[in-house]
Amino acid sequence: MPTRYLSLAPLAALGAAGAVLYAIRASKKDESVEAREPTVARIDQLIVYPIKSAAGVQVDHSEVTWKGLKHDRSYCIVVPVEESQQGARGEYRALSQAKTPRMSLIHPSLPSSEGITLSFMEDVEQPSTIHVPLLTDSRRITIVLWGNTAMGIDWGDPVAEWLSGHLRIPGTRLLKSVDDEELTRSLAVAQDSAEAHGLDFH
Question: Which pTM was predicted?
Answer without folding.
Answer: 0.69
